Amino acid sequence: MSKHTTKSNVKYEYGAWKQLRRDIKHERVLAASVLFYMLGAIIGASFTFSGAVFFALAAVGLLGYFFFREWRPSGLFLLIAVMFVGMGISCQAINSTADVTPGSHVVAGTVKDISPKDNGTTMYTLSDVKVDGEEIHKNAFLTSSESYTLDDIITSDASVSLPNRARYSFGFDDRLYCASKGAAFRAYSSGDELTGRAVGVLPWANSLRLEIAEKMDALFGENAGVAKAFVLGVDWDIYDDSYETFRMAGISHLLSVSGLHVGFMAGALLILLRKLLRLGRTSSYLATLAFLAFYVIFTGGRVPVVRASIMFACYIIAKLSGRRADRPTILAVALFINLIGNPLRLFDVGLQLSFGAVFSLMCVEPAISRLFGEPRSKLARGAIASFAINLGTLPIMINLNNNLWPMTIVVNAVAVIVASVAIPMSALATLIYVILGDAALFIGKIPDFLIDILNVLADIYNKTPNLSFSMHSTYGAAALMVFALAYFISPYAVKIKRKIRYGAVSALAVIIAALYVLPTINTAPLRITFLDIGSQDATIVETADRTLLIDAGQNERAAEYLIKNGVTPDAVIVTDQSAEYAYGITNVAKEFTSAKIYSSISGQQILEMSGVEAEALETGESIVLSKDVRVRVLNSVGDNLDSLVLSVDYYGRTALLYLSDAKASEQYGINQKSDIVKLAGHGAKDYFNAETLQNSGAAAVVVCSQRELSQYVKENLSDVELYQTKYNGSITAVWSNNEEEPPEIKTMYGSAEFGGKV
Question: How many CB atoms lie within 10 A of CB 36?
């Protein structure tokens, strides 16, 4: 009996593995498995407990596959098992944190990426991080006012803040974002220094890249920043005007080295080798593989370049081995290689756009071609491919922006066609110039002209009135996932009739589309949000049916926030009439023409010079937002009475005392009880009046600033809860229907320096 059982088990096991190989070969279970792994990663990131439970469920799924192999859709057991594995790894990854506590620490690490910020500081991505001398085996983000370059080793006295999950509907999940980048924490430097330089192949490549970047300044002139981004991935050196123009037109993705760039250059190299140099098929493919390996090292091993190179390499290897280059399988292999170490990379926007573009070429482009007929010319095929990429990645873009701009699709389609020539031409011109020197300066004229076309295209778009639709963002990634699952899985893993299958997918698509356009309904009687836009003021006061914006900063960020989150202000109060603040309100007035704008008497002149009409507010006047909420002007302060001190009253009590830019000496006499006080002058000592704060009886104080507070201010805030945008991001206070209940305060990320209520 024992002998018979053993033989039977061997036969059974062999049959199961044979069935698995058949599935992989003929039914693309490999591609489907990767998608289920991705789905598991998305779900697992939402849990806070150990991933061991999911690993146990995965084992159960595998057993189900082997024991029910004769059941027709037995592959579902395998897919479910893979999904649970993704859930387990993702859950473990997001809940595994470095042993670091918030507060002051000595942080050291090697600069691996550079991200300039609007306020004059720079956020550096550090690797090989040490905290107080102890290595944590994770990356970190360090914000500093000093300038460093790639591979610099920095040692900093910094304030460490741990990322938190999203605390409110329109905030992003900073914990998830940091985990997708492999970062354990954010640090804000109070003093740092260069303590060394990293050595090795990648640091050498980075040094070479930066040397070539300097040479490109002479070759491309004003367009050098864009050309460097195209070829070298030096995207922090783009001229501000160019980047802003590209960003507003929705084509800023062209300025970051990605799969698109790798594809353009590798494709152009293949054409050059095969068509012009007449190299054989094998030699051309091997040379392209060598180029991909070099380019990965040359660009510093940037993740987008690595993943795109893997995909292209898989395609070439399939061709060289004489196997059919099955695009779904290649995509799945490349995606799995990128996710196997950290499945939370799935939440990286660059990865989503890169693989989303390839997916679009696989399934969206053929559908468009069948609809309109197979294009005959290469230009038409390129236009359709570009349009398909933009259409297929639309859910991702909506998920980022909460808005749909139809014209953006058209602009992107044209821009990608131009970029497909501009990027390889920029690389070729740079190579020739590096070899020949100034004698080849003329070679830069062609890509320079193409970049000018992109600038003109973006500029025309930005000056053209554009229809936009505000959309709910939560379901963007889910929509793309649904269509991907439908494409890969429904024909293979689920054996049901085509009409039923397509009907179910269509119904699901309709449901998702409906969820997209559902408005975000504000049911709270009062919600006040202090925006994180640097050391600037912008505060949103919302009731159930009306919205007021208090100040708009000095740039376009406040307007962008309102647009992105579908918030339409009914009125705007500009409390600070300094000339530099006129730019912010100008952007808001341009985007929201129906909003009524108020200012002080002296502020009217400054705003009128900027083309903004405003109605003057005087001390004692008020704006009624609802039957229970009104905003009063307590005082006009300053030499020209140009700053308005406000109170937001709720049910007869003051919910917010807004001190504007009233100096400490100007706050005497303000005796207003309040739930929350927004400090004047971004918390500066000259604008802080301890008596005013004490008289308010406030339990919480908000500071909109990226600066460190002085010791004097900190000492006087020791008895209240402090919230600062530098550490907390955007801060939201919500009042309930209970008149006596204190507000619930939520933050975008991180805890307040003095233990804010999170």
Answer: 26
